[in-house]
Each structure stands twice: as C-alpha cells, then as structure tokens.
C-alpha cells in the first residue's frame, strides 16, 4: 500500500487516504479503490496499460474532451446529480490527468457511490444499454474531429483481413490446410464485410465518436433505481463507424452460447436481445443517424462475429501469439463458434431489417 500511497500523492486529491484496496477484475488495467476518511469522497486509482494504449497523452486528452462535453450536455438538459453521471479525472502535479514515473502510467478518478455494474444481459437491461450508448454517441456527435484513435485500425475490417492473409501466407504453425473451409467462407464474404471502409472512402458514411467496447458491464447503474447513470471504461472512445458500438454489443450479448463454445448447436443469435437493444439504441440515436447508418445496422450485427472469426483464425494460424489459450485448439474453437454466430445472424437478417423498419 505504501507504493500506491506514494503514487496518489502525485495527484491533487482532497481528503486523507485511509486505505487502498483492489477493485474489479478488469483484463487491461490494474484498478484500486482509494478509501478516504469519513466524510470525504473516495477515488479510483488505475494503472494504464501503456502496452495496449501506447499514446497515453492522446488517450487522456480524448477522455478529458469526452467527459467535459458530456457534462456540458447534461447541464444544458438541466440534469442533476452530475457527479454520478459523468466521470471526473483528477490532475496530477503537472496539471495532466495522468502521472508517470517513466515506466508506469497512473490516473485517478472520483469513485461513484451507490452504483453497481451488471454482468448478465436480458431484454430489459439490453434496452437500457441501447438507450445509454445511443445517447452517449448523440451527446458526442459534434466533437469527432477533436479525438484521435487510441488503437489505430481497431475495427478496420480491411486491416483485419490483411492480417489474416499474411498469416495464411506465412503459415507459421502449419495449420492452413486444416482450416481451408473457414478461409474460403471468409473470403466469400470479404467484399461485403469491407463495405463500411468503401462507403467511408466514397464520402457516404461518416465516422462518429464511439465507445468501441459496448458491454453491459461498461456502464454504472444506480443501486436504488437500477437506472443507467453513466458509461464508463472510456479508453477505447475514438472516431469509428457507429457499427462498432451497435455490432460489438450484439456479438457478445445476443449470442446464446459462449464465445468459445465447443458445441456449435448452442450458438445462435438471440432476437429478443436484438429487438430490445435496437429499440433503445434507435430511440436515443435516430436524431443524428443518417439513413445509410440505420439501414446497415443488420450488416453491423454480422460484421462483428465475422471480424472476430477473422481475428481468432489469424491467431490460430500464427501459433496463438495474441489471445490467451487454455488448450491447443482454443482459437480454432473460438473461430468455429463465431462463424456459427455469423451464420445465425445471416439467417435472421430479413427479420432484422423488417423490425428496424417498424421502429421508424
């Protein structure tokens, strides 16, 4: 704790620290709760994984712009309880919202009291998530040009296919022959799945400020009312296509099986989750969405299992160097599960188009 205390001393925090304890189970950053003496606000201390987010200065400037803009929008609406509805990062001694000793990077934000996260997804909270992420994008729709990409090409389908094709050419693990069926199926869909990048180059599809990690546990719910307070985990907030937020949520939340389900029969696309999330999302976001964005939402639902299938398969061909595996075929099992989800999405595509049309 003494080491952590010395880190918090570099930030301009009110109150006296009583203890610092681990908080949450995030996979990227190390997070701690800074408990202060009675009557003072508590804080969250976080070590930023600068191997994933290599430009920490850009990362924090993005977050500062986003949180300030959201607060301004909420003030304009006349909302109250803003300290629980927006994240607040504290300045270090040099005025920046992070501190580094040259090796590690740290930041501190205010702890939101009487708030919880949710892990399970059901139609009721899927609608709330859709509303929250749609509203998040709507509030930030006018500051896209002020943000940079914290992870370049993160959701660029052309880039992900390039990585797969390089993995096939290198064939480092000697596995190409055994996955020829999946490689053929991926290539058969490649032109359609790169539609977003083409439309962008043609000037038809804009980039928006997107969260790019839309999970139900990336928002805080009020402990008493179960209403959404705010969106959290802002590290991946950056310019992207709205398909990133829409499709990525459905890839995980609307999957009836596990991401790495060994039994493909368990994996299907849950239309109840789709309808609930879509209703909330369109209700909150339709004020700024273009017709081309709305009409391609079913494409987004297919894009993300396809993209993840490509990424898992590339890693399998490269000898499992990126994703952690629990057994030798783990990435191949993941590939097959994501492909089955993609097939299920494709089967439901006409139904999705009809439902979206009914909302408009």
Strand order of the largest sheet: 1-2-3-5-4
Fraction in helix: 40-55%
From the helix content, strand content and strand pairing, which structural class follows?
alpha+beta
How many H/I helices? 12
Give the ordered list of helices and strands: HEEEHHEEEHHHHEEEEHHHHH
The fraction of residues assigned to DSSP E strands is: 5-15%
Low-pLDDT windows of residues: none
| Gyration radius over CA | 21 Å
Euclidean distance between termini CA atoms: 55 Å
Structure description:
Strand 4 and strand 5 (105-110) form a beta hairpin. It is globular and about 60 Å long. The protein has helices at 2-8, 56-77, 82-85, 123-139, 157-170, 180-193, 195-201, 243-253, 271-285, 291-295, 297-317, 330-359; strands spanning 17-22, 30-36, 43-48, 99-100, 105-110, 115-116, 208-210, 219-222, 228-231, 238-240. With 360 residues, it is α+β, with helices and mostly antiparallel strands. The longest helix is centred in the C-terminal third of the chain and has 30 residues, at 330-359.
Q: How do the helices and strands line up, and which of them pair or pack?
A:
Layout: H1 2-8, E1 17-22, E2 30-36, E3 43-48, H2 56-77, H3 82-85, E4 99-100, E5 105-110, E6 115-116, H4 123-139, H5 157-170, H6 180-193, H7 195-201, E7 208-210, E8 219-222, E9 228-231, E10 238-240, H8 243-253, H9 271-285, H10 291-295, H11 297-317, H12 330-359
Antiparallel strand pairs: 1-2, 2-3, 3-5, 4-5, 6-8, 7-10, 8-9
């Amino acid at each position: 704790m003494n080491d952590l205390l010395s880190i918090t001393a570099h930030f301009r925090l009110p109150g006296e620290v009583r203890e610092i304890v681990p908080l949450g189970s995030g996979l990227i950053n190390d997070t701690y709760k800074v408990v202060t003496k009675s009557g003072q606000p508590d804080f969250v201390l976080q070590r930023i994984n600068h191997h994933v987010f290599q430009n920490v200065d850009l990362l924090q400037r993005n977050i500062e712009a986003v949180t300030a803009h959201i607060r301004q929008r909420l003030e304009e609406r006349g909302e109250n309880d803003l300290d629980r509805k927006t994240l607040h990062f504290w300045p270090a001694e040099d005025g920046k919202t992070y501190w580094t000793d040259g090796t590690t990077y740290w930041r501190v934000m205010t702890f939101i009291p009487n708030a919880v996260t949710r892990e399970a997804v059901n139609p009721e909270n899927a609608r709330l998530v859709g509303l929250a992420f749609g509203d998040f994008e709507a509030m930030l729709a006018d500051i896209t040009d002020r943000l940079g990409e914290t992870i370049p090409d993160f959701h660029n389908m052309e880039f992900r296919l390039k990585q797969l094709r390089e993995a096939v050419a290198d064939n480092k693990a000697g596995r190409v022959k055994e996955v020829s069926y999946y490689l053929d199926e991926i290539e058969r869909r490649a032109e359609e799945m790169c539609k977003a990048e083409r439309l962008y180059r043609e000037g038809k599809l804009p980039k928006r400020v997107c969260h790019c990690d839309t999970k139900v546990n990336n928002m805080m719910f009020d402990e008493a009312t179960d209403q959404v307070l705010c969106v959290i985990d802002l590290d991946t907030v950056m310019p992207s296509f709205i398909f990133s937020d829409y499709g990525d949520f459905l890839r995980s939340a609307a999957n009836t099986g596990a991401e790495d389900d060994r039994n493909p029969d368990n994996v299907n696309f849950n239309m109840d989750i789709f309808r609930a999330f879509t209703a909330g999302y369109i209700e909150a976001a339709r004020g700024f969405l273009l017709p081309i964005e709305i009409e391609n939402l079913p494409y987004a639902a297919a894009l993300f299992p396809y993209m993840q299938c490509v990424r898992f398969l590339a890693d399998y061909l490269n000898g499992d160097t990126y994703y952690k595996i629990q057994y030798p075929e783990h990435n191949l099992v993941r590939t097959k599960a994501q492909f089955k989800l993609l097939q299920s999405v494709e089967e439901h595509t006409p139904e999705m188009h009809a439902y979206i049309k009914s909302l408009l």
